[in-house]
Amino acid sequence: MVFFGYMVFSIVFGLLADRYGRWKILLISFLWGAYFSLLTSFSPSYIWFVFLRTMVGCGVSGHAQGLIIKTEFLPTKYRGYMLPLSQVFWLAGSLLIIGLASVVIPTIGWRWLIRIASIPGIILIMAFKFIPESARFNVSTGNTQAAMTTLESIAKMNSSAMPEGKLVEPILEKRGRFADLLDAKYLRTTLQIWVIWLGISFAYYGVILASAELLERDLVCGSQPELESEVVVTLGDTEGSQSPCHCHMFAPSDYRTMIISTIGEIALNPLNILGINFLGRRLSLSITMGCTALFFLLLNICTSSAGLVGFLFMLRALVAANFNTIYIYTAEVYPTTMRALGMGISGSLCRIGAMVAPFISQVLMSASILGALCLFSSVCVVCAISAFTLPIETKGRALQVLLPFVILLKIYLCCPVSSQETSMEEETVRRTAF
């Protein structure tokens, strides 16, 4: 249900971000997510718990606008290096929540875990005064003065001088339209991106949930899984809120294993950065997706506990590299007028894969481990082929501002002169169109 909320509002926030600005939607999503996350800890029943977590998913779906703002500010040559480094902060959050869970849940319970986990989101709201609106978005809406103000503050911060001239841009009334994603130039790219997003999410959350399942069932070579015991999980203080479920509480060793496998998400980051910048986005993604398919199959090999942890470690590293690459590619391939919507719809389809993953990694895996792992592997193979055949390579490609064949953004690189003093051809030479 968290992913369902994310799926619905990812499209909504993407549409609104292309029309009203990335900064506003990012702020709203942070306020929304922090508020409902905190409310979850006061859930009186399981139904309320599910509903409030769904609302959290709605809010979190807007966080992708932060990546778009960063993408639209970064120069072309630095995007392939700086964007993957964001994974370090994702890793820090993952490690923090696992560490907190190992201490908080056995002592004061899950409610306090959620309350403590809500604190960073609340604190970060205060940092929004330091985050500017995307200058590219402002220019695309005709708000050139705001864009100039932002660029001037950046130049001042870096002790640099602004180039002479001014920004000239007709106001674009049609922004964030779904039909633009299916334009002839982007149709094939869009469809293949959607397949890749769905498959990567399916594999990513499949790895996470399968890790917990494999550890809980103690599925290592020569071991016998213990019989399941019934544990009553209390969500509230009344008898009606007690819900029995068949599960095992994690032992300290299980938390340590989760931490080790999570650290794997950063293990391939240096290689991922090199691959993105030297091999290109398409080839790099196809290689990591192919390797992901292979390691899913290797999980079925009879191995020791250390071997299982090693396979999970590599899988987490590979699926994280997949997400790194597709995030960068999606943000780069679409023009400014529909970049947020493209990312939003991709994120929405991504959650479909996330919603399906538990039924495979927990339900199907209980019946057939081989069947579940083969299904995950097959999906990764499809994604690898789709990535390899993407029609557009964005390595070294400047961010597109407008739809093809329509040049609207004109930046004067030197002082404009009167049309009476120069011919149309000479005036055109004075402009650089992006």
TrEMBL record:
Indicate the transmembrane segments per the record: 88-105, 112-131, 191-210, 367-389
UniProt superkingdom: Eukaryota
What SUPFAM superfamilies does the record tag this protein with? Answer: MFS general substrate transporter
Q: Which residues form the Major facilitator superfamily (MFS) profile domain?
A: 1-395
Q: Which UniProt keywords apply?
A: Membrane, Transmembrane, Transmembrane helix, Transport
User: Could you confirm whether the keyword Transport appears in this record?
Assistant: yes
Q: How does it sit in the membrane?
A: Multi-pass membrane protein
Principal cellular location given in the protein's record:
membrane
State the coiled-coil residue ranges: none
InterPro entries in the record, alphabetically?
A: MFS_dom, MFS_sugar_transport-like, MFS_trans_sf
Q: Which Pfam families match?
A: Sugar_tr
Q: Where in the cell is the protein located?
A: Endomembrane system
Family affiliation: Belongs to the major facilitator superfamily.
Name of the molecule in the record: Transporter SVOPL isoform X6
Q: Which species does this protein come from?
A: Equus przewalskii (Przewalski's horse)
